[in-house]
Fold this sequence. Notes:
Pfam families: DDE_Tnp_Tn3 (PF01526), DUF4158 (PF13700). By secondary structure, the protein is α/β, with parallel strands linked by helices.
Amino acid sequence: xxxxxxxxxxxxxxxxxxxxxxxxxxxxxxxxxxxxxxxxxxxxxxxxxxxxxxxxxxxxxxxxxxxxxxxxxxxxxxxxxxxxxxxxxxxxxxxxxxxxxxxxxxxxxxxxxxxxxxxxxxxxxxxxxxxxxxxxxxxxxxxxxxxxxxxxxxxxxxxxxxxxxxxxxxxxxxxxxxxxxxxxxxxxxxxxxxxxxxxxxxxxxxxxxxxxxxxxxxxxxxxxxxxxxxxxxxxxxxxxxxxxxxxxxxxxxxxxxxxxxxxxxxxxxxxxxxxxxxxxxxxxxxxxxxxxxxxxxxxxxxxxxxxxxxxxxxxxxxxxxxxxxxxxxxxxxxxxxxxxxxxxxxxxxxxxxxxxxxxxxxxxxxxxxxxxxxxxxxxxxxxxxxxxxxxxxxxxxxxxxxxxxxxxxxxxxxxxxxxxxxxxxxxxxxxxxxxxxxxxxxxxxxxxxxxxxxxxxxxxxxxxxxxxxxxxxxxxxxxxxxxxxxxxxxxxxxxxxxxxxxxxxxxxxxxxxxxxxxxxxxxxxxxxxxxxxxxxxxxxxxxxxxxxxxxxxxxxxxxxxxxxxxxxxxxxxxxxxxxxxxxxxxxxxxxxxxxxxxxxxxxxxxxxxxxxxxxxxxxxxxxxxxxxxxxxxxxxxxxxxxxxxxxxxxxxxxxxxxxxxxxxxxxxxxxxxxxxxxxxxxxxxxxxxxxxxxxxxxxxxxxxxxxxxxxxxxxxxxxxxxxxxxxxxxxxxxxxxxxxxxxxxxxxxxxxxxxxxxxxxxxxxxxxxxxxxxxxxxxxxxxxxxxxxxxxxxxxxxxxxxxxxxxxxxxxxxxxxxxxxxxxxxxxxxxxxxxxxxxxxxxxxxxxxxxxxxxxxxxxxxxxxxxxxxxxxxxxxxxxxxxxxxxxxxxxxxxxxxxxxxxxxxxxxxxxxxxxxxxxxxxxxxxxxxxxxxxxxxxxxxxxxxxxxxxxxxxxxxxxxxxxxxxxxxxxxxxxxxxxxxxxxxxxxxxxxxxxxxxxxxxxxxxxxxxxxxxxxx
Length: 1018
């Protein structure tokens, strides 16, 4: 019978074979070593030997002894019989004839294998499950599976399914209650009342206080910035951020806060005191820092787009408007001065060489000649126009837009004073002067006179000095404090992005240096990190080996240059590649593609999801955010409907149906309670693992090559997390979904970033935050993801970085030995890697990569910290020098191995194919993203990523079956053609219209393949 959270099928599959083990599992659990064979050979008859082997390996695989040892998949029996030299595997049937023999074998195996009874290990298991439930908050099914694994690893015989399920459920419930009680106990009576007040709806309001406070800013404006700071101040005033919650596992705190942020206030009110107030406390703690994050996100985009960028645009527009006047004035002056030069210069006869005096001898005569061309009044007007329109000679290129920027002061007036009150800023020594100036701005605002002694004149660089100290409308001895405000804000904005100025009460805009491993914390993890990344504690030998590798590679590749027709060097010694010729597509490949695509079953997208769920159980990853058990029948149907709604960007309307699973109320409840980024990722991991086990996917690749690239989405609604880029988004803002795909076509993870920033800032974070699958070894990106610092960090992290270099001729190659002769590369290798600089900073380099590797700090923050306005810090420069070794090796390999270039191109094309399929799926609302907040964007694109992987898995499995069928039918199937099949075919999948969510009966778990000669109408 099913127990609590387990379905009938899951309960039946417990401690039993669920289909045939994979080849990997056969080799791991069912291989008979010498000790096994010695035990088995003592049995007299072949059926006893085979039965004993089946009991032995089944106990190893399942953790139980079978009541019916003949109930073993044929694949297992055949594998064991082959190892034992038993020709007739059907002999196993005779093993069950004597019950006493089976029982005797079980007793012998228990003693020999030292299996423990469950009762002896139950107490230890409870402690382990409690610790795991307390720290991870995993759902009951995940804990149940983990408990089964724990028992198997310790050779504990599995108990009945009901016994284990009830143990897991009770321990998990106790851990949850302890979590709620611990947080509840931190609150005073007054704080409990404050938190409960968040669930009330004030008179005249339409939403609760919690609903109001958890909604961040969306519009980019000065008043909205003021509101965002007021919201942060209001949340901070609750005082919940000051409570010590360090004893609570961060993951559990985050899950509770997510429930508080996403759940309905009415649902929260139904919970008991401890659970309700614990959830509200976690939510308030989260919102305390999140509100500051939101405010600074808004400030950053406000300064960048509404102030700096707009001032530059409006200045450019004004210049265009004044250009005709400038041109006319310039032409008049040019004509006048041409007359001056022509009439006042001595004339030289080019044939005779005679010199004649100037045409005019007096000033009056010269003016007469000028006025024949340009009247004096027009000339005076032209001079006046140039003085009016042209900037002063000693101005810089920024003065015009900075002058325009000062006129935007009403935008910043509402929030400047509030900014330094609400946000607890800190700064590095470099940022301290700017932070001090920022804090002084409220004292200057509104005053009629401000003297130079009251401001920090050292911050007045370039045209700011003139605009602040020498503004024509100011009295002598005073400064234009409005111009000074924008001078400080411009510097503050730049340093905030570099984290030279940071917010102590913010998680996103905090000081990354404070998060770096240091002192005892670094010393504790240092050996593990170095062993994991295969890096030495001392740099000397390691750098010498890298230098020798680079030197040897230069010489080898240079020696093959005369025979290499793929590369040429121009007159400046710069390297150029010949264009890769497209691989020819033989008729056999065309025929195979046509046959395989024709054989694919015609399905609706919901059926794809439901069928994939039936294969993988990925729907079990969608656990309730409340921490409770799932009490919804056929939850997988509702989940599939929501994946279609979000993944296709069509909303609820097309998926609503008459059955309970598809009614609006249930869709909305499941959406808020079960669908979130964490459950998308858990489900995705299951799909990735399942697809990797299919033979066809293994033909495509080993999962060790991956690419990272961005997919752009227009965001037509007001949002702080959408940024402008006319090339991709037209006149609207947009966001980028930076996603990773391996060479088996599985999406390994993704990240949503505002606008179109350089991918290089995020590549490492995407790699370290993948959903599942093997850890890639080679990383392919486009040129936008490239920088020398990123090359260095990726190499240190153990990845082979292979970016496409579109601007290859402009890339500098690097050498270590200045005197070495590298033949044709002599001019191209004009840069020098400074090994001494790398060695001098080696310990700090290790600490940086160790902090990223352990997750102590985001790579994005580190990269911003290592670079200042395009110039690296000394530590950043050392990492860049290390990266230049790998970069030069990469270029040399590109030059020497056309196959390497083709592999990179193929992986990039694979990513483009996935994006094309994603566009086809995400077709609703013109493919635009209508989410205002980053969390919403991540959730919706998480749904899209999961649907993509489900389609790829569906296609891979059916294409694998089609290829096998074609081979069996004698079709001309060549391995090299199979490797070029694409899992992104989609003509057989209907993604439009109103959908059906009823899965037909599937004997054997799959649909029949179509006839390869069938038409679409058949």
